[in-house]
Design a protein that fits this description.
alpha/beta, 9 helices, 7-stranded parallel β-sheet, globular, about 240 residues
Length: about 240
């Protein structure tokens, strides 16, 4: 039985990832800002799978609180085997094109918060010589697009951070996995027509947990996004500037 921390646990993707870990008999610590919704998620997992589930409030942007949060997770679980970072947001994207505080908020939640908490996790697992870290990044981090580059830049930073952690921790027996989902059928994509390869959060969650437990380094989910992004990354910049993707 493992102890697994899932951060950003009120998102649809994180909820179904919690289902997958609970189905395997793991003990969970679920963290998010909205404690009422978090308790509903925890109760659902407990009822469905009979799992032991703990909860705690976590604000990705409040970096000064992360050390105390991390120590509380270790105290409650008595140790930890894996951390899954799912927290992220596109709220305020339109404002982030013009307002410094809005772009800072977007980057803090999607990158700075992740780098802060996963640094604590990295040191803990490095000392133990085992464990896993998984981060949900995005295909948006593979290339800057006019429509979402503040969000994409934060996710691109997260992908590089995870890559560096992987290179550092692989020598200590710690696995670091980067998950790059494409479009997921959630609130973030609601109302956007004709999104290609739109996948349910259940499917993405199940595949992501399988990828993590197999110890893969980087994976696109669904896998077709590997080919899509290969094509998009290969488009010359002078052509890409004229495209509306």
């Amino acid at each position: 039985m493992r102890g697994v921390l899932i951060v950003g646990a009120t998102s649809p993707l994180a909820r179904y990832m919690a289902h997958e870990f609970a189905r395997l008999g793991d003990t969970l610590f679920l963290a998010a800002r909205d404690m009422d919704e978090l308790q509903r998620v925890a109760s659902d997992v407990q009822v469905r799978f009979g799992a032991t589930v703990h909860t705690g409030r976590f604000d990705a942007a409040a970096v000064e609180t992360h050390e105390a949060f991390w120590q509380e997770v270790l105290r409650v679980l008595g140790g930890l085997d894996g951390v899954v970072w799912v927290a992220g947001t596109m709220d305020g994207l339109e404002d982030a094109f013009r307002e410094p505080q809005a772009v800072r908020r977007l980057i803090d939640v999607n990158f700075t918060g992740a780098a802060s908490l996963l640094t604590l996790a990295a040191c803990y697992f490095e000392e133990r010589g085992k464990g896993f870290i998984a981060g949900v990044s995005s295909v948006a981090g593979d290339r800057g697009r006019a429509q979402n580059y503040p969000y994409g830049a934060a996710k691109g930073g997260l992908s590089l951070f995870l890559q560096g952690l992987r290179n550092r921790l692989s020598k200590r027996g710690v696995q670091v996995t980067t998950i790059k989902p494409g479009f997921i059928d959630t609130r973030m994509t609601w109302g956007r027509d004709k999104l290609p390869f739109l996948a349910s959060p259940q499917r993405v969650a199940k595949e992501s947990v399988q990828i993590i437990l197999k110890g893969k380094d980087v994976a696109y989910v669904p896998a077709i996004w590997w080919l899509v992004m290969l094509v998009i990354r290969s488009i010359p910049e002078k052509v890409f500037k004229r495209m509306s993707i």
